[in-house]
């Protein structure tokens, strides 16, 4: 079970709901009488996984205490002391987060008891539902457990036993999680930080002698994020795949196929009607060493004379050569295969990769991530997978991996999670009797996710296209329900709804092929910038679920129409004209609350320039980097300026990612703002140079828009 980290999402926490019963309410004198805990696994309470023990306090139990919890001295005669009971509880907890009500009291009593018992006290990581409830509903009539439970409709039966009170606290925590998410409090670190800002409540508890109900930390703690091996996230399938796959005729005998594999020292053989490589993946089947062994074990030596196609598998499971190792490993794990065909961008066979090819790569974390995404069945599962993204980004930054590669990986994970949210929505709709999709369709991710440039503060930008159907017709209504479900799943899983409404649940971002073509034609014909709000990110689309051919046809139409009308691309380029200067009058950074917005002053203008010019010159590349490099190859373009912007883009992405990783550890809501003061002097100088390069964009848009 994974330990708690700063990035652990509240709705997917592995934790122990905890409570004690004591001899009194004065922390200086109170003694522990009972310890109780109930496990939460992936944010779900597990009543069957509980811990409870009485504790001998070594002092008489006051009658007034017995009147509350029913524990008498007679009941404690054979109970262990705290010196034995607490280590047993810690063995049960296994480093998990502790959740409880008024935990400051319990922690203060436990610390005193530990010192009395000669135990080394190490404060566990905790969250107090009393503190969290005050964040969500400061107008509760009182802060009692009963009042909070009544507000959240949590059953309080069995009160004043440690296990029952722990169970109540756990159910309150689960009920609070969506309310906290609405206030952008989604992770353990964010909940800790929000609790630390409740100064009045903390002051009152301190006056009563309570401990703080969370670990107060300064700086970025060493345990903020788990350590992972980044290798599977920095290499692509094409690096390990065979350059020229061995292909044989499908009518070959099994014995000859085995000899061919032995000759080439390979563990699989691809088969086709013509025995040639380079065809469409659908044309091939595959036979492996294990297939041959199973055939011989079943049919004896006679099996070797049979046709190899009889024991081959079809269709072949394939992965694109541009995919990262972690994606291929996840596909192998999901499909339970050890060999994958490798395809090029057009779906043609270009190689083969096997599990053996990955043995030299330490890929445990990568397999785990893809498995978590593919096996997710609830929003909490998706949230748990998304929380791993920060771990990956942190590890890759430490390895000094190109920040653009990290952003591409984040985008890939975002797209995978979106795809799984779509699968979950489809399953729910079928279970609800709404049936299967009425026509073929596809779900697209737009914006930074579509460009492969997502950072850790990603939100939703998505759209749906379906083969046919009128606006508000039966097909559209079906996909409206589908879109609302999968976007709600993503929102619950810590990928927030788009504030600008660029989502398939909005009719403007959903439609048939005919509707989308009409929509694109209208965009291109517009003459006012205000009519083109959010239209630009449509050109950053990527298919994540459904029929890719629908999206490819729509994208081709959009790029063709965009290139035909210069005024359209020019208007898109106008969006960078009014971005304010990031510098003060005296050359310093123009900061707000000690931070500089690098999206506003850097990432947005660069991406917008690259997109507008790529549309104008019909260069349908996906990423900002690819667009700038393609533009730089045109003979009349200012090559040095475009490449300088490419390098500035890389630097700015890196600085934002570093800040976001630090902010996750500190529980600060994520944004694209960086604290300039945290940068070394050399980085501050490079930042100024990068932003000065960005300053040429308005003039560059004007000059390059009409270059041939």
Automatic annotation (TrEMBL):
Annotated protein name in UniProt: DNA polymerase-3 subunit epsilon/CBS domain-containing protein
Tell me the SMART domains matching this sequence: CBS (SM00116), EXOIII (SM00479)
Recorded hits in Gene3D superfamilies, A to Z, give:
CBS-domain, Ribonuclease H-like superfamily/Ribonuclease H
Q: Which SUPFAM superfamilies match?
A: CBS-domain pair, Ribonuclease H-like
Q: Which domain of life is it from?
A: Bacteria
- Give any Pfam family that matches: DUF294_C
Question: Which InterPro entries does this one have?
Answer: CBS_dom, CBS_dom_sf, DUF294_put_nucleoTrafse_sb-bd, GlnD_Uridyltrans_N, Ribonucl_H, RNaseH-like_sf, RNaseH_sf
Q: Which GO terms describe its biological process?
A: DNA replication proofreading
Please explain the role this protein plays, according to its UniProt record. DNA polymerase III is a complex, multichain enzyme responsible for most of the replicative synthesis in bacteria. The epsilon subunit contain the editing function and is a proofreading 3'-5' exonuclease.
Key words of the record: CBS domain
Annotated Gene Ontology cellular components are: cytosol
Q: What is the lineage of its organism?
A: Bacteria, Pseudomonadati, Pseudomonadota, Alphaproteobacteria, Hyphomicrobiales
GO MF, one example: nucleic acid binding
Organism annotation = Nitratireductor aquibiodomus
Query: Where in the numbering of this chain does the CBS domain appear?
Result: 241-302, 312-369
Subunit organization: DNA polymerase III contains a core (composed of alpha, epsilon and theta chains) that associates with a tau subunit. This core dimerizes to form the POLIII' complex. PolIII' associates with the gamma complex (composed of gamma, delta, delta', psi and chi chains) and with the beta chain to form the complete DNA polymerase III complex.
PANTHER family in the record, alphabetically? DNA POLYMERASE III SUBUNIT EPSILON
